[in-house]
Amino acid sequence: MTEVVLAAVLGFLFAVGTFLVLRRDVVRVVWGVSIISQAANVYLITMSSLGGAAVPFVSAGGADAPATVDPLVQALVLTAIVIGFGTTAFALVLTYRTYEEHGTIDMLELADGTEEAETNGAVATDGGADE
Amino acid sequence: MAVNLATLLAVVGLPFLAAALTPFVYRFLGERTAYYAAAVALACLGLVASLFGTHGAVSVEWIPTLDVSLRFYVDGLSLLIATLASGVGVLILTYSGAYMHDEPGQAKYYAALLAFMGSMLGVAFAADMIVLFLFWELTSLSSYVLIGHYQRAGPSMYASRKSMLITVAGGLFMLAGFLVLHAVSAEALGSATWALFGDGGILMPENAAAMQTALADQGLLVPVLALVGIGAAAKSAQVPLHIWLPNAMEAPTPVSAFLHSATMVKAGVYLVGRLRPLLGGEEWTAAFVALGLLTMTVAAILAVAATDIKELLAYSTASHLGLIVAGFGFTSFYGAETGAFHIVNHALFKAALFLVAGIVAHEAGTRALNELGGLREDLPITAGIAVIAGLGMAGVPPFNGFYSKEFLFKAAWEYATVHEGVAFLVPVVAVFGSIFTFLYSIRFVAMFFGDKPDALGHVHSPPAIMLGPPALLATLAAVVGIGGVTATFGVHLEPLETFVASVIQATGGELGGGAHAVAASGAAGAAAAGSEFTYHLPTSRESLPAATMSAITIVLGAAAYTEYDALHARLDELISGPLTANYYYDGLTDGANPFSDRVRNAVQTRRLRTYATWTLAAFVALTLGAYAAAEVTLALPVGELLPVTPPKLAVWLVLALAGVGAVMVVRANSHVAGVLTLSILGFMVAIFYILSKAPDLALTQLVVETLVLVIFLLVLDRLPAFYGNVTRSTALRDGVLSVAVGATVAITVLLATATRPDSIASYFVRTAYPEGGGSNIVNIILVDYRAFDTMGEIAVVSMAALSIITLIALRERGETQ
Fold first, then answer.
1. Which of A71, A90, A92 sits opposite B781 (nearest CB)?
2. Does the CB of A22 have a partner CB in chain B at under 8 Å?
3. pTM (2 d.p.)
4. Is A41 on the interface with B (CB under 8 A)?
5. Is B4 a residue whose pLDDT tops 50?
6. Which CATH number does the domain A2-51+70-106 belong to among 3.40.50.2300, 3.30.230.10, 1.10.287.3510, 3.40.50.300?
């Protein structure tokens, strides 16, 4: 069945995540990515039939297959949660290391710093990135 | 005799395998890798030799759903090209051993040469249009790598880009032609096929006539001719697409000798010869005779204007390829004889001449024609090779090039006498072009004679390893030439003549001109049309016109040679600006450069937000565009929300709290506040999992959420308080993109949940206990059915952990080493 409420909430979460990804603060970018991946997981679970069906367990005999929710989706999302954890932790430590190296967690300053470091100034500064 | 599939797979696959192994071999053998590569080429030559006497098609399934197979076909023409690719390959790779001494990038060089040889063998044997196209483009790719061998040199980069653009673009034209053929074959033969040969192949004698009739009926004969012709012309450097070939001389000389004279440029004429039985007719003759003779003449004139010996040879190559194209353009038996025999002769004398040019450049240190002279004193053997090969190129009897050029004259004369009127221009142009051929050939040979310029100094003798290959090629060329003399007295060079006859048969021999005669010329008719091939000095009455044309060429050429320097200077002056094809090529590419720069500057700002903006905007546009294209209807069944039940209410409440958490993350005025509100979102998602009957997910989510919170707090402790205040205009702009992304996701969820796709879930539910031995289905999937996924997941987590250790703990160590 069409999940109107979930559609609204997921759309909202993606919008918030996108907004955060576009920020100058690296920590906020990490938050944004984290929110988007959470929302993606919720979306997948939404697809595995919300109401009605049973928890994906079979009785020991396994003779009669009950009408459970889709266990395959759950297995996929479980993998996704763990991998999301790995990438979030990595992104955070990368942020920390970036701060150690460059003394800033401002995306704008980081980009400008790289630009000055490069000898060829071929890269223009316009591109809609003047926050 | 039937063809052995294993042999064919081996001969095409071996060079690629050897190319892949080259970097390792180079580590052990160093510069002697040349001999490893030559040994591979020799093995290929042996395999090709074992195919002689066989004939037919074999195939292995490749993409059955698209009816694409690895089809191979062996006949005279494919054996000719394959013998050239592997045979000249052996010589070139051996020669490289000395020539490339102390040069950079040798592992890459030999790997690319071997890969090229494999691709060329693939082109020769391919009997499927897709496979042919694939190998065809692979030769362009390896040619790109080899022309750009000196990666730091500007001219080298310019040359490789140019050849890549022209030959690959030509290949795409050819592909378009193949697509048309594929489509037409559905109607002509009952089912669409990619096969050239084998069951239902469009070039099979019984199918060719039906194909040609269908093409003509649908008015597609000329378009196919044009598309395939452009592909062949780009590859075989036909005017005006010849411009990449002289630049390609930036490559090391062995590459020029191998790819750009003996083999790769023959792919175009191979295609013309291959499709001659299918497309041959009046339009065919008009197109290819005109193209070939134009190229032959223009390129010969350009060769006279050339000042560099390799440039001269490059233009000369284009000119001789024009001669071959013109030969295949004629539908007469003489035409096929010209094309088939000149491929052999040209490969022999031109590869030898390139290697001579390599020796001269290597030992004399210059390639400028006006700085070279009197080299015969220091390089007597090289001079001998140059004389034999050069006179063959000039078409002087009794050297090898004379005989094939004689066939061209015969074909041209016969065409003129049959068609009369304007057709007499054909032999005139042929003679006119040949005069220039004679001129530059003699000029090339002349650098070995006359006085030696003082500036040249002493020229060293080349090492034997560099002298052997061209000497062998020149000897073969001489044998072909002498074979013509002895044949005049009745002693024929049987193996060569039989072989060339089989090539002629493969290219259709004498075509009747009409659609129906084509079929006859294919199989049974080939014998009737006269598959005998002999060549000898002109003695009979009917060879009188052609012999006269040769005589005119040589006499006028010799007379004009006395004025060579004046002619050269005059032409050099004349050929510039809008008269050259380069003018247009450079104008086009230079014109495109500012645009490329603008695109790059807009897309690559080194800022994450620019990249994210482009990526997300593209995601929105593509997704919504696809929905619009598929004309999906969006239902919004608000009525389904009722009646509100307690379970529903619980889900809504949890989701609402998650949304509030998300809002708070954005509004957080400190990092710590943001992280804590992010946790609210995470824990709400965990509760959502419980409500969605996913207890395992909820457990995992709770653990992960707790860990993430701890890590965030640990890291934030070390980071400065920075929040990057947002201005109103930026917030508005980002807001628009965010809303667009959100709306796209919402629409996607609505569409996706409206339907219930087929699920394979019931399989797992049914088999989890009997086969997996557990009652928790999710666990069984993770550790049993999809255990490999789980292993990948563990690998990702361990990789993240290792990277974190590297980033934090090994910082100092990494910096100091």
1. A71
2. yes
3. 0.78
4. yes
5. yes
6. 1.10.287.3510
